[in-house]
Amino acid sequence: MIKNLVAAVACDHAGVSLKSAVVDFFKSRKFEILDCDNNINNSEDDYPDAAFKAARAVAGEGSVKADLGVVLCGSGIGVAVAANKIQGIRAAVCNDTESAKSAKAHLNINILTMGGRVIGPEKVPEILSAWLDTEFEGIKEGGSRHLRRINKIAMADKSTLYIDTPINSDAEASGRVVIFNHPLVQHKVGIIRDKNTSVKAFRELLQEIAGLMVYEATRKLPLTEVEVETPLAKTMAKTIEGKKLALVPVLRAGLGMVDGILNVIPNAKVGHIGLYRDPETLNPVEYYCKLPADIQEREIFVLDPMLATGGSASAAITLIKKRGAQKISLMCLIAAPEGIKRVHQDHPEVDIFIASLDSHLNDHGYIVPGLGDAGDRIFGTK
Question: SS3 helix, strand, coil % of the chain, rounded to 5?
């Protein structure tokens, strides 16, 4: 069953004239509506309140997560400025279709703002359609400059960068691409890129990066309350709600990420998939697959440091699906746009977690600038 996407909608008294048109549009696209208004039609209301509520929902800070948002005021400017103060938000004023197309294609905005004193309700559907129906160019061939630029913006406030949030609730595609901009992750990635980094340091840093990345990758795990007794009294504590996790490294390089994650989630089971890339065709060839017997009950993280052509990762995910797995994510260190495109073409629902999205593949299928062959650098075989 496909879960409907959620649109956060908010306005102040000056933007309320557009709200009904916005809500009607999203309902026509089968979105669920998260109403984030405060004191509608009260001339004393403050537009930052509405903007902050919607932005926090889109950023995942509240109890209800929104996939995107629309915030309305008199001009659209005030609410855009306010929304952009929330970490992880990219909001832009779009009072015409060309602005909406550009904001999506070049910035992949997750909140669009409009002004009730600038446009009328009749303009709302065409502006929102232009936004939702335009593709983000940052992960398309030749579009890396757009990703580079918004990544620099995200780095300024240490945001985790979501670059591929789904917008089409009629499709099964719901997978995200998540780039970790945390200073510790980026610092360690810089060190392992260096060709002079020793095998020992490379292994240790890869484990450390994987351990840091798993914090964000497991953010959506639901919690429940259980009663525990401290040395002083009984109290309610949080625990992960019935979730079983499994790690499946793609041999051999994926092994380098396992211990770092097990240090954080020691009860996760570990499977293994053996694939190698044919040097002539660059296609994956399976030679081993051993998974936990209850893999269909587990949330799975496929581990592979380098997402180059995407063939091996896609093949690994296919093998796991054939054994009944339902929820699969892919965790990599460095990816190329070609690899992301391939995985999401074959498995559009899979979340992809990476520490860096690099420029392109060279003629030999290696990521540029990359870090070379991760397996060779982990095991010292070259």
Answer: 35, 25, 40
Residue 373 designated active-site: yes
Number of residues that make up the chain: 382
Catalytic, out of 29, 193, 252, 277: 277
Average pLDDT over residues 329-358: 90
Largest Cα–Cα separation, the chain: 70
CA distance 247 to 80: 40
Q: Which of 45, 376, 377, 381 is catalytic?
A: 376
Among candidate residues 281, 294, 323, 351, the one labeled active-site is 281
User: Does 376 participate in catalysis according to the annotation?
Assistant: yes
Which residue in the list 96, 259, 346, 373 is annotated as catalytic? 373
Q: How far is CA 240 from CA 94, 245, 292, in A?
A: 41, 11, 20
Higher pLDDT, 147 or 102: 102
Residues 6+ apart with CB under 8 A from 275: 250, 251, 284, 285, 286, 287, 312, 315, 316
* Active-site residue, 160 included: no
Identify whether 318 is a catalytic site residue: no
The CA distance from 189 to 202, in Å, is: 10
pLDDT over threshold 50, residue 168:
no
Contact, 86 vs 96, CB < 8 A?
A: no
Which residues, in sequence order, are bridge partners of residue 72? 11, 114
Q: What is the DSSP letter of 270?
A: E
